[in-house]
Amino acid sequence: MRIIWINGCFDVVHRGHIELFKYAKSFDGMVVVGIDSDDRVRSLKGETRPINNQEDRKFLLESVRYIDKVVVFNTEEELATAINLHNPDIMIIGSDYKNKKVVGKEYAKELVFFERFGTYSTTNILEKK
Fold first, then answer.
1. Which domain holds residue 102?
2. 57: burial class by Cβ within 10 Å (0-12, 13-18, 19+)?
3. pTM beyond cutoff 0.85
4. What tens digit of pLDDT does each residue of 22-34 get?
5. Whole-angstrom Cα distance, residue 65 to residue 4?
């Protein structure tokens, strides 16, 4: 069975995320999602984040039918190790990471960029508050 890897914060899940998960499942394999720990989200996005704690984010993602497994990582090194351990056939990352550093890409057989679905964005959702 092929392994498909995705990682991110997934703090406020929206349709764009679901479209990403659905796309990943279309590769007909086991979809594994890595999520940033609360401490990592706070360090990357500021003290007001995450909106949803890692247990709730993990639970929510485990409830999505396109996702087979969710793992939490706390550091860039833990992320790279998790990707290496899962040895993914395909790693899917947002197209905004083209020409940027992609942690763990060397452990995936193929890197696929996912184009943003519509105008969905966690930042845009939070700014509407």
1. 8-127
2. buried
3. yes
4. 999 999 999 999 9
5. 14
The helix or strand, by DSSP H or E, that contains position 22, with its residue range, turns out to be helix 15-25
38 token code pair? 């609360």
In three-state secondary structure terms, 109 is coil
Q: Does residue 3 lie in a domain region?
A: no
Cα angle value 54/69/51 (rounded, 5°): 20
Query: Does 1 fall in a domain?
Result: no
In a domain? residue 74: yes
pLDDT of 117 higher than 90:
no
Report the run of H or E that residue 25 belongs to, with start and end. helix 15-25
Question: Could you tell me the CATH number of the domain that includes residue 46?
Answer: 3.40.50.620
The total number of residues shown for the chain amounts to 129
The number of folded domains in the chain is 1
Which residue spans within 14-76 are E strands per DSSP?
29-36, 69-73
